[in-house]
Design brief:
The chain contains 11 helices and 12 strands. By secondary structure, the chain is of the alpha/beta class. Strands 4-3-5-12-6 form a 5-stranded mixed sheet, with helices on both faces. The chain has a 5-stranded mixed sheet with strand order 9-8-10-7-11, sandwiched between helices. It is rod-shaped. The protein starts with 7 loop residues before the first helix and ends with a helix. Helix 1 crosses helix 2, helix 1 crosses helix 3 (about 35-50) and helix 2 (about 25-30) crosses helix 3. Strand 8 (about 180-185), helix 8 (about 190-205) and strand 9 form a beta-alpha-beta unit. Helix content is about 45%, strand content about 20%.
Length: about 300
Amino acid sequence: MGLVNVDIDLLRTLLAVADAKNFTLAGERLLRTQSAVSLQVKRLEQVVGQRLVERGSGREIRLTEAGEMVRRYAIEILKLNDALVREVAHRPETNVLRVGTPDDYAQLILPEIIGTLSRENRHVEFHVVSDLSVNLSRMVDSGDLDLALVTWASGIQGIRLAEEPLAWVAAPHSAAASLDTLPLALFPQGCRVRDMAVEALDRIGRRWRVAFSANQFTPLRTAITHGEAIGVLPLRAVPKDLVQVGPEHGLLELPCAPLIIKIGRAADDSAHQLAGAIAHAFQPRPLASAATGIAC
């Protein structure tokens, strides 16, 4: 025998008949005529190949042994059917929130912020794009991103978050910072932090070369931790396996990088909620700045 699909509506009718013990009363509950109820019961009997109801004393309708079996299955089937409909009908659609950030922030700062919001918003999918700030700004303008955390540069507009202290960083006991020609591990041209670093070196006449360049922070971090180069990072993004270097190696203090958040014109509530969480994370921390000797 091939697969047979049982109409949910037929099962509801059988349960109504079993409860009312009368075709007419069952029809009133189902907003159907007595003949329509009787016809549906007969159709169900044809589907299962068994007689399901019989007349008892008087005009009372009762279930046969096969009818009782179908009734028990019908209760469970309808429970699952109704639960499925309720779950789908009331389940919010997943909202994809597209976030852009330079890769150092993406790896070292943003995960904690997004992790907290993700636990609070189970139906938001965070899609993170890492790139240079100028590229991220263009992606927000074109509608490819909902918001982006970027370093300000000429032509980029957004909400000012903070003046980010920058730090020269190296591996502990690395000799790279003491070399006559300073080997650097930096993001590619177009990165505002890169420009600020080389401009600072040019002002003091310090020779330098870009030894490693990458769009992603991981290869830069590898070069720095192996002692092959020094890098520049926002002070709050310096990982624990790197140390700050400075005047002891003839490196002057770097200027602060203006950090902004740029929100797309079509951004929804979840984008604005994330923007608020990012802004809160970047609130000034005077004691931390004073401890590092950096004032912005």
